[in-house]
Amino acid sequence: MSELSSEHIALQEQILEAKAQGRILQIRGFGTKDFYHPLNPRLDTENLSTQKLKGIINYEPSELFIQVAAGTSLQSVETLLHTHGQCLPFEPPRFIRPEKDALCSRDASIGGMVASGLSGPARASVGAVKDFILGAHLINGQAEHMVFGGQVMKNVAGYDVSRVLASSMGTLGVITEVTLKVLPQPLGDLSLLAKMSAEEAQVLLLRLGQLPLPLHSSTCVNPLSKVGHHELDFTLRLKGANAATQSALERIQSELKALNREGLVLPQANALEHWESVRDQTHVFFSSPTSPTASLWRVSLPLKSLKLGVPSFAQESLTEWFGALHWVWAEATEILALQEEVARLKGSMDLWRTSEGTDRLRLQQFNTPIEANSLKLQTQLQQAFDPSGVFKTGRAQP
Prior knowledge:
four-stranded antiparallel β-sheet, alpha+beta, Uridine Diphospho-n-acetylenolpyruvylglucosamine Reductase, domain 3
């Protein structure tokens, strides 16, 4: 293994110093995900910045992988991939913030993308961030530099620790490099818009899910982001070979006709604007709470539960992942009913965003608890990677 750079050595020294003084380090790239997962936030943390870890280390388009330093901007990586007709298929959200926010950049980092484990609209069809991690380099809570995985799938043997880093929220150590599997950008890309109820959309998706179609993404949302409207905007994206998407379009139009509905093929510019707005949560829905005191909840449902009926909140949510993911605005008086409905459907719910002045800690009590075995595994991993608790920020578990 080559010698560590001065940037790596500086990080190791900061970790050792924090360990010796009993301080907590909060790993931070560009800050676009500062809002995410503050379960038991520590107020006495010190920032550990990854912004100096920049650059493309190795990119082989023909081998379908790219190795990147953790502080590299996601936008620069996607721009490079685009020039070679390739992409990160899981569409990681960037949560770009306004320039007036001096504490946050207008970009996301590769390290933050992995640590948060978040995926965009394509998650249900192509997989999650963890499914595309081939390898990673990490400095743990003991300031040890560790290497996991490889550059191609055949090199990964045994227990794949690099995939565990996804969703770890920086509690296992500092990700310094990551190797990702990339894929060619499909030539066929069509988006179809239809007006229908949440019930009709669910029936249609259940039907289409049984057919060999290149379904990529879906959304269902009230066009005005207001409650009380029965017809929602149902948008379906198809990606694949040109012939496959055209054939699928004809079949879907036929299914819509059976529901007495019509589908409009969106101009590509309008379609891309829609999917980008959902991916980065700039869609009007995310800035239109049902009331000034409403909180936004992320509700995940198993696809099999959708056969039990349409969730009571479906008409008022923004729905992704073919019905499996709902974004729901709820007043404090509505959260208990939402929790009961999610439990009945064997799903999970997590607080995503609160209004100004809301007691976030009280609302977090409605989060679906981490399953016991998963919590035990998380605790064991954290103890193994960071026995001194240098990265024990409270972001990965209550």
